[in-house]
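Cross-posted from the bioinformatics board.
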Amino acid sequence: MPTASAMNRRQALVSGAAGISLATTTSQQLLAEDTKSEDGEPFELKYLLPSCMYGYSTLTEILPEVSKIGAIGIDLWPKVHGNQREQASEMGEAAFSALLRKNKTSVECITQYKLGPFGLKEEFRYAKLLGCKTIVTGAVGPRGLRGKALKTAVGQFIETLKPHLAAAEESGVTIAIENHGNNLIESPDSLKWLMELRPSDNLKIALAPYHLPQDSVILSDLIRSLGNSMAIFYAWQYGMGCMEKLPKSRELLQMPGRGRLNFVPLLAALKDVKFRGWTEIFMHPVPRGLPILDSTASVTAEINRSRSYLSTCLESIENQSNSRDNATAGTPGGKPKMTDDKKQTQKVVFDDYNKLNQREAYVILNQGTEPAGPGGYTMTKDPGTYICRQCNAQLYKAEDKFESHCGWPSFDDEIEGAVTRRVDTDGYRVEIVCSNCNGHLGHVFEGERMTAKNTRHCVNSISMKFIKKGQELPAKIVKKKD
Ligand SMILES: [Zn+2]
């Protein structure tokens, strides 16, 4: 559970943001000045309003909200999530265009899962008519694949898509494939293959962090590798209230600033790649087809609450990069050398790793988990260093250990470079392994707000060995070449 003071800090952060991002033009202008990239364009998120956030409300009701959430246009959703795509058809093209003009907005995206990537021909025509350049849909193909089999399947999907892609190009439309659970495109690797193998810029990605591991390091790395092959970024995180009916407060944890995911690294990555696509603040209610909150005004206010949070994130990124610039301004030759004063000097030997007994091997080599409880190093509070059981590499400092009451030793920081994160085989959690020997350590969780660093390395005691302060560290073992 987050502590009361952590919650207060967070509330202060969110409520403080509202005044800065939504009210004054001066601070926005200042911010815009500050975020100018080399080519002179300021970095900002270009928002679209996903119509299904308002359930089955009428277009007449929704379109005036577009400008109220700082969006440029709308993403038209069909049933069952919304029904605005159907409303537009019923209204007829002339009346719908007139309504768009009246509200000084445009359709910038149409979402069409039901039609699928191979059934969009008629939708291309409609999109072109409206001047809409993006259609979001899902992929088709086998699921749960990895490695070479995954690459082959993504390649086959793209091959089948080619004639449809040609039709999209003719209409000036981009097909954006959203990653989704239980789908060919469901993992970071599948997204990278889609990006790498895509034959045309009219095939892009609609990135939904909701369906990916909830780890801001993995997500921001992914954003950096996908770059501008992303057409859409959903500002949307995993929350429990998406599939089963839960109290509204739980359902809303999908919204940026409400749930656990820290969006700062994600936005920093978007800024680094100079993301030019659309951002949609998003969530799914249960059941589908309802507005996320009771009234149109409250939906708009909730979206703006998340927008304030994202603005605060962008500001903190700006402040960080400014203070870095200031810190390096007087340093000859640019950035100061990174030093890691936490790491003790340690001998290195080239040898075989330490022998593991059966229980150790079960956890370290087979991603096992030791039972929770007060055993092992859970209660250890002595000063010193935690090293890898298998290779002796330094992993954690005692000063970064904290009492999480979760039943396993917990740290909110690692020794720099000592721990590698990767997507767990469950496709959702983030596994941590020793960077030297790849031995399994445990999992890392972010956004729980247990400590100021907002990170919890949940480590199996058996994966580590504790070396008390003052005792000599055994040599780190680097494996002999076989
Ligand atoms: Zn190791």
